[in-house]
Structures are given as structure tokens and as C-alpha cells.
Amino acid sequence: MELSIFAHYWPMLLKGFGMTVLCWILGTGFGMALGLIIALIQRYSIAPVRWLVQVYVEIIRGTPFLVQLFLLYYGGPMVGIRLDPLPAGIVGLTIYGSPYFAEIFRSAFRAVPTGQIEAARAIGMSEPTIVQRILLPVGLVSALPALVNFSIILTKETVILSIITVPELLYQTQRMSTETFRYLEANLVLALFFWVFVEIISRIGRRFERRITHYLIERP
Amino acid sequence: MFSSKIFLESFEPLMWAARYTLLVSGLGIAVGLVIGALICMASMSKSGFLRGFAAVWVSYLRGVPMLVQLLVVYYLLPVIGIDVPAIVAAVGTTAIVASAYISEIWRGAINALPKGQAEAAVAIGMAPGDVWRRVVLPQAVSLSLPALINELILLVKASSLVSVVGIMEITRASQAQAGSTFRPLEVYLAAACVYLAINLCLAALGRYLEHRMAV
Amino acid sequence: MVQASSVEVRNVDKFYGPFQALKNVSLSIPAGKVTCLIGPSGSGKSTLLRCMNFLEEYDRGEIRIDGKLIGYDAPGRKMSARNLRQMRRSIGMVFQQFNLWPHMTAQENVAEGLVRVRGMSKPEAMARAATELGKVGLADKLGNYPSRLSGGQQQRVAIARAVAMEPKLMLFDEPTSALDPELVGEVLNVMKALAAAGMTMVVVTHEMGFAAHVADQVAFLEKGELVAVDSPAGIFHAPKDERIWNFLRTYNERNSF
């Protein structure tokens, strides 16, 4: 074991980690937004549009993220979509995550009791207001655990961006190991690092959930 | 311009390469089922050590990206003196990662069974081993089937990552094809189609099994 | 005294696929009076109630509130969503499952409609909500979330939420059926007060005591048919139809020791 390489390479690794976090946050944020739009389309739109969206969902869920990335990054330029690695990675994560987020929102919306929507209709609320004031807040809370869970899965997917040369953590680790020939140490430490990182964000996620759902806890 | 000729021609080598995709994911889930069962038993055992081991196993494998795990295994094996072809490292990693998820699937299925059933079996004097063999396991296995099919679909997709260590599965083959034809769009679209076809078949199988169980 | 609506139901049919839930139902609901709808479960009484604010779409016939057709501009031509909302503003509804919004406090639940539908300012709506909650005896529960309230308290919040919109007609869909027996009284008392204030009320209920003592008229439905409309005394003491008699006998057997 030769761990002294980290003493020399840590600034590069830190930059890689920053890039990982950036990709993760943007990919998760945009993916969630796109997923929400998809879920709302699936709930409110006319049948042909819903079918089109469903086809998109099936295609994205049925293919590996890596192949989607290759299509976007290498195939994209042939249809005029020229993206640098980083934007391609973020767009890729957004597309990849969107159907999963959509599914989470969709089932959360279904879990909102019909009666709560009817109560809003009965006092004369308009549909957009019902979405904004009842469906979204009630649905989002019940979606929260699944959202947190899938966001954590996305953290792990960010390493795949190294294959299209996004300079995130795995990419920097590989650079370090090819320069030092310390492949095992580098990857082992990276694995441990991810393990701890994922544990930490899971814990933060759970605490966040508890804070948001405090009013649902019965205490008569 | 989109060349449908290249698109269609890509299918042959990719479908050929699909053997490796199916080999890695199929063997991965088969071995994963066995290890997963052991981990599941460990997680439900009375021994604190075994439970702790299972918890660490699951937490590590679910916390670390599969690509990183693959690299660790790939570089670790030669260091500890095990000289095996890359395909073994690939299947091994896939199986080990799968085992973590599978053990959770089985634990969930067992916990979902009404407790009264096992108690009823005990009450009529069945031995604990028989209770498991005759009452708990048959039901848990069929309860968990849809989730296991789903896991297999995930593995088919995850197996694209073993292209990184040089296994000529669909993704690697499409990279090679894209390199030689300079038509990445057509080739990767074809690759996506092959994956989609495999996964749609598996999903249909899953729905069929779920439907049969529900009756 | 409140401003009160009358409701005129004429020849209403309602289908769920091939199943006919309402069969040619006609019923007059006079302004300022309490009408109870009773009958066995599945008789269509809730469906009829829900047709009155068009949460349930009736297929034939007409329902008029103060002479104005609800749900349709003309037979077969559905009303615009905006006009329907306009009509619903003056029809309050209280549900069996309360249906409070779980992410809002009691006060916010009542204020929400005032802000979003009536366009009141937030502080004004909150003050109004506090007053309405005071009237149902919940002045000390303004800041409580629904999960921290008993069933009876939740239902009283739901009534306050409906009343705050200043409806001219109140629909109650089995308002006490989801409550523990000891909580039924507090909700019925609030309803009695509303009745005394001259509100037009249509109440689907299994509380025969309430129907007998508070209602001005009682309608009995079975299998989608309106069997009889009569005074409470007429229905409970001199039922003219065997079906009513059977229903009441079963009810008494279940509720006696």
C-alpha cells in the first residue's frame, strides 16, 4: 500500500469531488424538474401526448445510462447537438433520472386522497390552484423518501461521466493512478470515500425528511 | 444524414455481443441469488456478528458505485495473486453487487409474510426446518419474483459498465463498431434498441409472473 | 339569518357503466330547511348529494339551485369549469373523511378558500378563519395540524372551512360516520346550530336521531330510487312503504341491546 500519493494529489482530487457534487446537484435538480413535468403531463394531458411521454419513459428506463451518454455525446454532433463533456454529462443525468423521478411523483400524486382534491373543488378552487396548493405540497411530502433515495442513487451514477471525460472524482482518480501506477490504492480509497459520502448524505436526507414531515406525526 | 443501412448493419455484431451481456447479467444474478440468500440468512440470524457482517456488506455494496467496485476488483485480484480473465472479475463483481440488493429483496419478502402462518405451522408441531422449507420459503420466493426480475433488468443495464474492463458485450461492441464506421449515432441507437428489446422481454416476463401469482 | 338556497332535483338518472345508481329521482329541497337523505348503503343517497354540487356528473334530468341548472348550460351541454366553480362557491360540502389538507393548520385550512377563491387578503382571511373556528368551539386549536386533532375536531374544522365561504346551501355526506361514538355529539351540535341559523342543509346520514329531531323533511332512497319524502314523523312513525319499515327494523335491531 502506498498512500503517500494522496498527499501530492489531493488538490486535484478535491477539484474532482467538487465536480462530482456539481454534476450531482444539477443532474438531480434538472432531472427532478423534468420528472415533475412528465408526471403532470401524465396526469393532466390528452391521451396521445401521454402515450408519447410513456414511450420516452420506457426507452430511457430500458437502456443503460452509459449508452444514453454515448448517444448524446458522440451521436449528438451528427444531429447538431454539440456539447462539451460537462454539459453533456449534466444533460445526460437529467434525461436518465427524469423517468424515475416522474414515476415517484406519479405514484405520490396518486396517493393524495381524492377527498382532499374534492374538498378543494367543492369550495370552487380552480385546477391550477389545486395543483399548486394541494396536489404538489401533499404529494411532494409523500414522495420525499423516494426522492431522497433516488437522488442518492444518482450520486453513484455520476462516476459514469468519467467515461466521457467529465473531470469528476473517478476521472481524476484514474489520472492519478495512471501517473503513479497505484491503481489499487486509488480505487480502494475512492470506494471507501464513496461509501462514507453516501452514508452521510443518506443520514442528512433522513433528517431532512423528518423535519419536513413533522406535522404528519400524530400527537393528539 | 441518418444512415439506416449502417443502423441496420450494426445489429448483427451487437446481437452477437449480447451473449456476453446476458452471460454477465444472467450469471451475475444466479450467483447473486446464492450469495444474497446467505447474506439474508446472516442478516436475520441470532448472531450479532453475522448481522453486523451482513449490514456492512449491504451498506458497502449499495454505497459504492458499481464502476468503482469493478475497478477495485479488477486491480485487486492480481495483487492478491489471483490471475483470472477479466470476464470472471466482471461476473464476480456483478454477482456481489447483486447479492446486496437480492438479500434485501428476500428479507422484504419474508417480512411481508403474515407471521401467523409460521406460527400456525409451529402450532401443529412442524419442525423449524420444515416450517422454512414448506411454508416460508415457497411463498417468499414467489413473492419476490417480480422484484428479482426487476433486479435482472437493472443488471442487464449495469453490465454495460464491464465494457470498461474490455468485455466485448453490447456496449463495448458498439464502441468498436462506432470507431470503425465513424457513425456513432446509428450504432449507439442500435445498441439502445438491443438493450430495450432485452429489457422489454424481461419486463413482460415479470408482468406475466406477477399476474400468475396474483391469481 | 343566512341567505339560503333552494334545490330542485328533477328526473335525475346517473349511470356507472351499465349500473344505474340513480333512477329518475325528483326531490324539492326548500330554502332554509334541513333535508335528510337516508337509506341502506348503496342506495344512491351519497351519489345524489354529490350530484348537487356536480362532484358527480348526473347523466339525465336536471338539478337546479335557486332555479339555476348546475353542471350544464343546457341539457347535454356541460358548463364551463369557471361557471361551475362560480356556482360551487355558494355550496358548502362536508365529507365523511373530513378531507382537511394535512399540510395546513386548522386556521390555514379555513383561510385557504377565502384567499384562493374569494380573493381575500391573507391577514383578513386568517382573522375570519379564527372567528369561524371560534364558532365551532375550536378557538384554542387554530395552529394545530389536522393530525393533531381528534376526528370530531377535524370535522368541525371542515364545517368551519365550508361555512367561511358563506354558502347558501350546505351538503353533508355522512359527516359523523367516521367518528368514534363519543365524538358524534359535538359535530351534530354544530350542525344543529347551523340549521337554527336558517341554512339550507342536505344531510346524508345514518344518525336516525338527528334525522328525526332536526330534519324538516326526510327522503328515503333504496337501490337508486327515491321511495318516499315525508316529515320525520311520517317516515319514522308511519312509514307508508314496506321498504322503509324493513330498513328501520334492521336499524333498530342493530342499535339496541
From TrEMBL, chain A:
Q: Which residues form the ABC transmembrane type-1 domain?
A: 17-202
Q: Which GO terms describe its cellular component?
A: ATP-binding cassette (ABC) transporter complex
The UniProt keyword set, sorted, is: Amino-acid transport, Cell membrane, Membrane, Transmembrane, Transmembrane helix, Transport
Taking the first listed entry, what is the main subcellular location of this protein, grouped into a coarse class? membrane
Q: Where does this polypeptide localize?
A: Cell inner membrane; Cell membrane
What membrane topology is given? Multi-pass membrane protein
Do the record's keywords include Transmembrane?
Answer: yes
Q: Which GO terms describe its molecular function?
A: L-cystine transmembrane transporter activity
Q: Sorted alphabetically, which SUPFAM superfamilies does this protein's record hold?
A: MetI-like
Query: Which residues does UniProt call coiled coil?
Result: none
Superkingdom per UniProt: Bacteria
Q: Which Pfam families match?
A: BPD_transp_1 (PF00528)
Membrane spanning stretches: 16-41, 53-74, 86-102, 134-154, 181-201
Question: Which family is this sequence assigned to?
Answer: Belongs to the binding-protein-dependent transport system permease family. HisMQ subfamily.
> Would you tell me the protein name for this molecule?
Polar amino acid transport system permease protein
Q: What is the protein's species of origin?
A: Paracoccus sulfuroxidans
Automatic annotation (TrEMBL), chain B:
- Per UniProt, residues of the ABC transmembrane type-1 domain are 18-206
Gene Ontology cellular component terms for the protein in this record? ATP-binding cassette (ABC) transporter complex
Q: Which membrane topology term applies here?
A: Multi-pass membrane protein
- Give compartment(s): Cell inner membrane; Cell membrane
- Superkingdom, taxonomy of origin: Bacteria
A biological process term (GO) from this entry: amino acid transport
GO-annotated molecular function:
transmembrane transporter activity
Q: What keywords were assigned to this record?
A: Amino-acid transport, Cell membrane, Membrane, Transmembrane, Transmembrane helix, Transport
Gene3D superfamilies per record: MetI-like
User: Which residue ranges does UniProt annotate as crossing the membrane?
Assistant: 20-42, 54-76, 82-102, 187-209
Provide the family line: Belongs to the binding-protein-dependent transport system permease family. HisMQ subfamily.
- Which PANTHER family does this chain map to? GLUTAMINE TRANSPORT SYSTEM PERMEASE PROTEIN GLNP, MEMBRANE COMPONENT OF AMINO ACID ABC TRANSPORTER
Task: Give a short account of what the protein does.
Answer: Part of the binding-protein-dependent transport system for glutamine; probably responsible for the translocation of the substrate across the membrane.
Which protein is depicted?
Polar amino acid transport system permease protein
Q: Which organism is it from?
A: Paracoccus sulfuroxidans
UniProtKB/TrEMBL annotation, chain C:
Which key words are in the record? Answer: Amino-acid transport, ATP-binding, Cell membrane, Membrane, Nucleotide-binding, Transport
Predominant localisation class: membrane
Ranges where the ABC transporter domain occurs: 7-248
Q: Which organism is it from?
A: Paracoccus sulfuroxidans
Q: Where in the cell is it found?
A: Cell membrane
Question: What family does this belong to?
Answer: Belongs to the ABC transporter superfamily.
Q: What is this protein called?
A: Amino acid ABC transporter ATP-binding protein, PAAT family (TC 3.A.1.3.-)
Task: Report how it sits in the membrane.
Answer: Peripheral membrane protein
Source superkingdom: Bacteria
SUPFAM superfamilies in the record: P-loop containing nucleoside triphosphate hydrolases
Q: Cross-referenced Pfam families, in alphabetical order?
A: ABC_tran
Keyword Iron-sulfur attached: no
Please tell me whether the keyword Plastid is annotated for this protein. Answer: no
User: Looking at the UniProt record for this protein, which Gene Ontology cellular component terms does it annotate, in alphabetical order?
Assistant: plasma membrane
GO terms assigned for molecular function: ABC-type amino acid transporter activity; ATP binding; ATP hydrolysis activity
